[in-house]
Amino acid sequence: VDLSVSWLGVNMENPLYNASGVMCRSREELDAVAASAAGALITKSCTLLPREGNPEPRYAKAPHGSINSMGLPNAGYQYYLDYAKAYDHQGGKPLFVSVSGMSLEDNLEMLAAFRDADLPCLVELNLSCPNLPGKPQIGYDFEASSHVLSEVVKVYHKPFGVKLPPYFDPVHFAEMASVLNSFPSLKYVTCINSVGNGLVIDLDSESVVIKPKGGLGGIGGDYVLPTALANVREFYRLLDDKHVIGCGGVKSGREAFMHILAGATAVQVGTCLYEEGAACFARIRDELAALMQQKGYATLADFRGKLKTM
Ligand SMILES: O=C(O)c1[nH]c(=O)[nH]c(=O)c1Cl
What we know:
Blueprint: E1 5-7, E2 10-12, E3 16-18, H1 27-35, E4 41-42, E5 59-62, E6 65-68, H2 77-86, E7 95-99, H3 104-117, E8 122-126, H4 142-155, E9 160-164, H5 170-181, E10 186-191, E11 195-199, E12 201-202, E13 207-208, E14 216-221, H6 225-238, E15 243-247, H7 253-261, E16 266-269, H8 271-276, H9 280-295
Parallel strand pairs: 3-16, 4-7, 7-8, 8-9, 9-10, 10-15, 15-16
Antiparallel strand pairs: 1-2, 5-6, 6-14, 11-14, 12-13
Helix pairs in contact: 3-4, 4-5, 5-6, 7-9
Residues 21, 45, 68-72, 100, 126, 128-131, 193-194, 218 line the site of ligand HRO.
């Protein structure tokens, strides 16, 4: 079977890569993803200046996934720009850069710098960080999203993507799709970011499991798979001439297959990568290949977006 996918000028030997935020804050981590069976890699969302992030513990494994309130810890955009400048873009694994400024001005300054560096990597603009106390997720404010994107496309003229929060209402899917469709150079969306501000409780200690925000954090893993699949399918259906990247609940070939069936061009792995390490990519890749073999599909395009309804 052929697991390759080519989109937006990048060629991936398989559709799997890391979710921004996991195993991608340092060059050592990024190199580990690049050295793994992953088909691509993406950097930790970056801000103008380096950030320590929220107090620890800020990540915890949960019975069916994870909770995090990292608070955007990152080395600052210059670090990732330098990594991108030194990266072997011909090495076969596309590099994506996630940008998540603390303000529109910061986003525009970082995007202008990436523009001027004229590198072959694709930008994923994060509109959905749920863990900055006092800062709402842009993606939940349609007016703000439209304004941000209007300013972004004045500065950044290359194709780019956005990381979206999960939506839970058909009206919201339609509203956000309408905003996104008015930006032709916005060529992909990544659905979904963590399900924001969940609460995991440890029964024995009768306590929360992470320190920031009274224990509230973004939920990932098995918990979010149905929501992730719904967002992938809805935006696949509603967006014009854009790709949807699936993220949420992928821990085996089965969920990767589901995301692609729902319309995903490629698939990101978060919680499972955090817990299992980079070996998960070879495992999930082989499981996906076996599943395709079993079902008689030779390529991803044979079943992409072909979810049956009743
Ligand atoms: O707390 C974080 O750093 C974080 N955590 C997430 O689950 N999603 C994000 O987009 C970010 Cl930026």
